[in-house]
Amino acid sequence: MSLEACKELVRAGDPDRYEVTVLAPENVQKVLWPLYAFNVEVTRAPWVTQEPMIAEIRLQWWRDALSEIREGKQVRSHAVTVPLAEILDPEGAMVLDKLVEARAWDIYADAFPNRESFDAYIDATYGNLIWTAARLIAPEAEEKIIRKFAYGCGIAAMLRATARLKSMGRSPLFDDNVTAFHKLARHGFFNMNYAIRARKSLPKSLEPLLMSGWNAFPTFISVRHNAQRIYEHGFTQSEFSRRYRILKLSLFGWWR
């Protein structure tokens, strides 16, 4: 029941966030490790079984844990729930509950019926996680900027995962063709760019959180130049390129 256990879960399940979070100050890590570990557990819950009912039970378990935190009850014993309860307030528990609820989409193979439902999913899964982290680290942070940033991160992640999800019989996009795929990358880029232009108004303490989006722009640029290939075969990135980007962030900060 420790931060170290959360850290190990993130290292194994979310290496992109792990690589930059280890660079964060200790007080920020105390917030991010439990939140990211929670996200790892919730994100993989629909995928560890092919039985929809079991997957729904797994997600409900996390909703019940969040309800205990929200109501100030003793939280159930788990490597993530205990550290999470130490940093999460009732508002945060309510926001994260919407994240868990949205992850139910991952259980089934249904396509998003329209752009609005797709955007709502991205905002619930990425926006709610990153906004909760930002609010706990810096309560004065502006929500609009953070959610624009989170939306860009979510779009980039969906673009990287599209080919894999399609190979598994899933329908990750609301408009399933390469032209829409390219347009989605452009839309994600514009949202991320908005956050970059507004970054000076954000507290400096949020730098480690914002660094979690380090892989978004490489994704958008790759799709711009190779949309057909990435749409059909997925996103690839050399280990050298990955390490160089993280090193640059560690030396110069967020997108400098």
Please sum up the structure shown.
The chain has helices at residues 3-13, 15-21, 26-44, 52-70, 81-87, 90-102, 115-137, 143-167, 178-197, 207-210, 216-233, 239-252. It is mainly alpha-helical and 256 residues long.
Q: So what's the overall shape?
A: globular
Note poorly predicted spans.
none
| Total helical elements | 12
Q: What can be said about the biggest beta sheet?
A: none
Distance between the termini: 37 Å
Structural class: mainly alpha
Helix and strand element order = HHHHHHHHHHHH
Into which percent range does the helicity of residues fall? over 70%
Structural description of this entry:
The chain is 70% helix and 0% strand. The protein is mainly α and 256 residues long. The protein is globular.
Can you lay out the helices and strands and say which pair or pack?
Blueprint: H1 3-13, H2 15-21, H3 26-44, H4 52-70, H5 81-87, H6 90-102, H7 115-137, H8 143-167, H9 178-197, H10 207-210, H11 216-233, H12 239-252
